[in-house]
Specification:
- There is one protein chain.
- It is built from 10 helices and 6 strands.
- It is α+β, with helices and mostly antiparallel strands.
- It has 2 domains: 124 residues, no CATH class; 106 residues, no CATH class.
- The strands form 2 sheets. A 3-stranded antiparallel β-sheet has the order 1-2-3. The chain has a 3-stranded antiparallel β-sheet with strand order 4-5-6.
- Strand 4 and strand 5 form a beta hairpin.
- The radius of gyration is 21 Å and the shape is globular.
Length: 266
């Protein structure tokens, strides 16, 4: 009779980042796990030992771990629909999305596929990966808590309440190299995506994308949607920079639509 594995939260402290039990090696880089085996980093320890994956390219390893981090963060926030994950993180590939879902379930990192939350170990891995990102990665805390749906906007009553909700989030966003901003464009409320400064002599920020609205309430509803996906801003800015503003507009339209429930059919 096969013995059931002991759940992570009964073997480890689920409140600490995954891999906290490892020890740094004296006089050289890397870590040593509880069995005395040496690893180049916590990330490689997770990938090769815990997840049993292969690969020799550091670039490929980091790319896969960043994808894992993005998926775990989206599930932890609980505001992104499965279809949104498929279109944004898996480039519309449903086969790849479902395979990744099975992989996460098999490793017991999620509770109920991509429609459920993270397990305690999944959350611990999320914290570890977010804490060990390279300097080249965006300086955005993954899973940043932003706008609670019951505060302001649909559930608020005044413009003051809406502005109070946005204030802290906008202050944080001002420090990002690529950021969405609320603006007034030709007497119309709007949103624009500002990219990092570029130019040979005096680098200046450049508007990569913009959208105008008839009402500021509509603008703020969409801005709240963007804020809840703040860790995707850099990827979307890169899309606008490489493929154009129209491509980003179409991508965001598809993602916003993906969060809506399907129409009932007879």
């Amino acid at each position: 009779m096969t013995q059931k594995p002991i759940p992570y939260e009964r073997r480890r402290n689920p409140n600490l980042p995954w891999g906290y039990w490892c020890v740094a090696q004296e006089g050289k880089s890397g870590i040593r796990d509880e069995f005395g085996e040496e690893w180049g980093s916590l990330r490689s320890y997770l990938w090769f030992s815990r997840l049993g994956m292969g690969g020799s390219s550091n670039y490929g390893l980091e790319a896969q771990l960043e994808l894992l981090l993005a998926v775990l963060a989206a599930l932890a926030r609980g505001v992104v629909a499965v279809e949104g994950l498929a279109k944004d993180l898996f480039l519309g590939g449903w086969e790849a999305t479902r395979h990744y879902e099975c992989w996460l379930v098999g490793h017991k990192l999620v509770k109920n596929g991509l429609s459920g939350g993270l397990t305690p170990e999944g959350h611990a891995i999320l914290v570890m990966l977010a804490s060990t990102r390279s300097a080249q990665s965006a300086a955005v805390p993954i899973g940043l808590p932003t706008i609670a749906p019951a505060r302001g906007l649909d559930w608020g009553e005044t413009r003051d309440e809406r502005e109070r909700v946005f204030a802290a989030n906008e202050a944080f966003a001002q420090g990002l190299p690529n950021r969405f901003e609320r603006v007034e464009a030709i007497d119309q409320p709007g949103i624009r995506l500002v990219g990092y400064p570029e130019g040979p002599n005096v680098p200046m920020a450049r508007v990569l994308w913009s959208l105008a609205f008839r009402e500021d309430h509509d603008r703020d509803r969409f801005y709240a949607w963007l804020m809840n996906r703040i860790d995707r801003w850099e990827a979307w800015a890169d899309m606008a920079r490489r493929q154009g503003a129209q491509q980003l507009f179409e991508h965001l339209l598809q993602l916003a639509h993906a969060d809506r429930p399907a129409l009932a059919t007879d």
